[in-house]
Amino acid sequence: MKVITWNVKGLGNLKKKLSIKATFRKYSSDIVLLQETKKSIIDQNCVLSFWGRQSCKWMVVPSSGGAGGGGGHPHPLEK
């Protein structure tokens, strides 16, 4: 099993998005953990755009103000 964990410090930059996708492809990861995405909405389309596969299970822990998502509860958003 291959796991990638990455503090991406934001996903608004196209160059960074392409780098993340390339890393996922290179290592054929089974589990991916992205921290500090700075995204207010993470949905199925967003996840699949990085994952590159038609289906996957995923969840998000929403940010809680400037304190981050540590105090929140995971919200499964899989279909």
Structural class: alpha+beta
Average pLDDT confidence is: 78
Number of helices: 2
What quaternary form is this? single chain
Q: Kindly, what is the distance between the CA atoms of the first and last residues, rounded to a whole number of angstroms?
A: 23 Å
* Cα-atom radius of gyration: 12 Å
Reported for the largest beta sheet, the result is: 2 strands, parallel
Taken from the alpha-carbon principal axes, the silhouette is globular
The percent of residues in helical segments reads: 25-40%
Range of strand content: 15-25%
N to C succession of SSEs:
EHEHEE
Strand order of the largest sheet: 1-2
Uncertain residue ranges: none
What's the β-strand tally?
4
Outline the secondary-structure elements:
Blueprint: E1 3-7, H1 14-27, E2 31-35, H2 44-51, E3 59-60, E4 75-76
Parallel strand pairs: 1-2
Antiparallel strand pairs: 3-4
Describe the structure in your own words.
By secondary structure, this protein is α+β, with helices and mostly antiparallel strands. Helix content is 28%, strand content 18%. The strands form two sheets. The chain has a two-stranded parallel sheet with strand order 1-2. A two-stranded antiparallel sheet has the order 3-4. It is globular. The mean pLDDT is 78.
